[in-house]
């Protein structure tokens, strides 16, 4: 077995699942989509989470789901390639076609609570946050309110 | 990895914990952008958290075992 080359990593097709979404945005046309890369989480974490402070001073995060879908589109559609700005414009212009693409990206990415539970079952059971990371949710604040 | 973080909110399952992403990048010796390009979202949301959780759990079990052994040894002396 030979050593892989830098070239094969950089220019290879990648190993994320891909599929075509047919008849978008119009009948007879299609886009190529893939399962989301980790870069999506990086950007979603910084752009789609909005921290709000309630009247009693507690901070809560809300998710801007519209922004999440725009980021999903930008990271998930690989042919043709769209920037985040372009994905934003598309989200404003298309309804069902945009949702159809997002649904396929969701299917390929396959991260939901069931998936996390299935993966966790690979290892012995333990406490885990909704996104799989230990102690990522409902933890005491630095102010020591627990 | 997996210490308690000074915030409280529930992330959707398809978004990896940003703190965990930084820890993973440090552990793998790569930048966040490299990690973002080279790993799938599935891995950073599902596979790696499950692995680190289990690794931490086993380390805690081993630490407790060593503590018990040390205590027993002290009591024999």
Description:
- The complex is a heterodimer of chains A (146) and B (77).
- Chain A is an alpha+beta fold.
- Chain A has a domain at 16-36 and 73-120.
- In chain A, 41% of the residues lie in helices and 16% in strands.
- Chain A has helices at 6-11, 38-47, 65-76, 84-93, 96-109, 113-120; strands at residues 18-22, 30-34, 49-53, 59-63, 77-79.
- Chain A has a 3-stranded antiparallel β-sheet.
- In chain A, helix 2 runs antiparallel to helix 3.
- The longest helix of chain A is centred in the C-terminal third of the chain and has 14 residues, at 96-109.
- Chain A starts with 5 loop residues before the first helix and ends in a 26-residue tail after the last helix.
- Chain B contains 3 helices and no strands.
- The mean pLDDT of chain B is 86.
- Chain B is mainly α and 77 residues long.
- Chain B has one domain (18-76).
- Chains A and B meet through helix 2, strand 4 and helix 6 of A and helix 1, helix 2 and helix 3 of B.
- The proportion of residues forming helix of chain A, as a percent range, comes to 40-55%
What is the share of helical residues of chain B?
over 70%
Number of strands of chain B: 0
Number of strands of chain A: 5
Spans of at least 5 consecutive residues with low confidence of chain A: 134-146
The profile of the biggest β sheet of chain B is:
none
- Average pLDDT value of chain A? 81
Q: Rough shape of chain B?
A: elongated
- How is the quaternary structure best described? heterodimer
Largest sheet of chain A: 3 strands, antiparallel
The count of domains of chain B is 1
Shape of chain A: globular
Class by alpha and beta content of chain A: alpha+beta
Beta-strand residue fraction of chain B: under 5%
Mean pLDDT of chain B: 86
Ranges of chain B where pLDDT stays below 50 over 5 or more residues in a row are none
Helical region count of chain A? 6
Rg of chain A, alpha carbons: 19 Å
Q: Element order, helices and strands of chain A?
A: HEEHEEHEHHH
Q: What is the helix tally of chain B?
A: 3
């Amino acid at each position: 077995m030979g050593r892989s080359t830098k070239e094969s990593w950089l220019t290879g097709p990648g190993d994320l699942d891909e599929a075509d979404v047919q008849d978008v945005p119009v009948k007879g046309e299609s886009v190529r989509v893939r399962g989301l890369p980790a870069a999506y989480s990086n950007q979603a974490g910084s752009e789609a989470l909005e921290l709000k402070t309630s009247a009693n001073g507690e901070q809560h995060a809300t998710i801007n789901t519209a922004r999440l879908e725009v980021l999903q589109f930008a990271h998930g559609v690989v042919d043709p390639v769209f920037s985040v700005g372009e994905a934003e414009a598309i989200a404003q212009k298309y309804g069902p076609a945009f949702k159809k693409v997002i649904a396929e990206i969701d299917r390929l990415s396959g991260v939901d609570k069931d998936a996390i539970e299935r993966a966790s079952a690979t290892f012995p059971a333990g406490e885990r946050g909704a996104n799989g990371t230990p102690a990522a949710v409902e933890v005491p604040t630095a102010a020591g309110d627990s | 990895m997996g210490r308690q973080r000074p915030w409280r909110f529930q992330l959707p399952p398809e978004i990896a914990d940003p703190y965990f992403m930084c820890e993973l990048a440090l552990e793998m010796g790569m930048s966040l952008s490299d990690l973002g390009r080279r790993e799938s979202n599935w891995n950073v949301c599902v596979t790696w958290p499950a692995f680190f959780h289990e690794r931490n759990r086993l380390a805690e079990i081993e630490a407790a075992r060593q503590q018990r052994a040390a205590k027993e040894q002290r009591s024999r002396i």
